[in-house]
Amino acid sequence: MEANKQTENTYILVGEEQGMSIDGFMSPNPVRLKDKVANKTVILATTNGTVALKNAVSAKRLLVASLLNGGAVVEVKCR
């Protein structure tokens, strides 16, 4: 597991499985995360994100946003 490679207090576990938060992980709700992720590596486990990407594979244009790349996604979308 990726967390085993990280120094304590340098990462945060975030995830959901089938839409439900995983025990021991923070909810992937951006509003709840925004003040908790500064200067930390986010290790994300998700089933919903994978399903959503798979379902959108035939889209003409697909933008995938996260807390890390949100600004870049906004720039692309506003062009």
UniProtKB/TrEMBL annotation:
EC number(s) for this protein?
3.1.3.71
Q: Which InterPro entries does this one have?
A: ComB-like (IPR005238), ComB-like_sf (IPR036702)
Asked whether the UniProt record includes Hydrolase among its keywords, one would answer: yes
What Pfam family is a match for this entry?
2-ph_phosp
> Out of the domains of life, which is the source?
Bacteria
What does the sequence similarity comment in the record state about its family? Answer: Belongs to the ComB family.
This chain's protein is named Probable 2-phosphosulfolactate phosphatase
Q: Lineage in the entry?
A: Bacteria, Bacillati, Bacillota, Bacilli, Bacillales
